[in-house]
Amino acid sequence: MLKIAPSILAADFSKLAEEVKCVDSLGADYIHIDVMDGHFVPNITLGPGIVKCLRPHTELPFDVHLMIENPDQYIKDFKEAGADIITVHVEACRHLHRTLQLIKQYEMQCGVVLNPHTPLEMIKHVLQEVDWILIMSVNPGFGGQTFIPDSLNKIATLNQWRQEQNLSYVIEVDGGVNEETARLCEEAGADVVVAGSAVFNAVDRQLAIQKIKG
Ligand code: DX5
Ligand code: ZN
Predict the structure, then answer these.
(1) Which of 62, 83, 127, 206 could bridge to 78 as Cys pair (CB 3.0-4.6 Å)?
(2) Is 175 annotated among the ligand-binding residues?
(3) Does residue 111 have a known ligand-binding role?
């Protein structure tokens, strides 16, 4: 069964704590938090201050997806705010290996994210370092976009590499995930899917979460 990380990007920002508690009670496994800086991606969302405010409202792990330039500068702040997992974009990290070490120094799980155009070869030499690999199945910046099918090839290859090299990183997929695309991700070897609009905009959120998990 897939695990699900609802993305609060699609939640009602005027009542974020209730939205987090809602998906927690309905079977979410993680809370996915999209941090955008208006530079790496053309949108601005939220920072460590809001993460800190949400922390008392759930015991679910916070999966913090940093879509920002210079992520090293903010790792400590997100740790102090209550992040459990931090994923950084390979495209935003000049010294990716160092950034991953920094996240681990702060005793969080570390992950790397690849945009749809970025080849898997870019992370071949950090596979041993990462706890998570996040495959973007849309271009980052906005919720509600359509799943890019080529992402499935990347998931399958990562799953194959994981078996061949006896590694244990979690494979997560983000963007355009709904009941149908979740099954394709699962078949390809994904472990966790992020879902924003498919959960928060659903009439029956519980059913949406159940169906995505499979
Ligand atoms: C996009 C974000 C996603 C987004 C997914 O940049 O990283 O997490 O919230 O939204 P949906 O599930 O609506 O595609
Ligand atoms: Zn995300």
Answers:
(1) 83
(2) yes
(3) no
Exactly one of 29, 63, 174, 191 is catalytic; name it: 174
Residues with CB under 6 A from ligand 1: 7, 9-10, 32, 34, 65, 138, 140-141, 143-145, 174-177, 194-198
Query: pTM to 2 decimals?
Result: 0.98
> Phi and psi of 196, rounded to 5°?
-100, -80
Cα separation, 78 vs 190, whole angstroms: 26
- Catalytic residue among 29, 34, 37, 191, which? 34
Tell me the CA–centroid distance for residue 165 and ligand 1, in Å: 30
Nearest CA among 54, 41, 43, 169 for reference residue 115? 41
Tens digits of residue pLDDT in 3-28: 999 999 999 999 999 999 999 999 99
> Count of residues for the chain?
214
* HEC secondary structure over 102-128: HHHHCCCEEEEEECCCCCHHHHHHHCC
Q: So what's the ipTM on this one?
A: 0.99
Instruction: Please name the residue that has the structure tokens 């990290």.
Output: 93
Alpha-carbon distance 89 to 108, whole Å? 16
Kindly report the backbone phi and psi dihedral angles of residue 62, in degrees, each rounded to the nearest multiple of 5, phi listed first: -90, 120
For 18-77, the DSSP string reads: HHHHHHHHTT-S-EEEEEEBSSSSS-B---HHHHHHHGGG--SPEEEEEESS-GGGGHHH
pLDDT tens digits for range 170-196 = 999 999 999 999 999 999 999 999 999
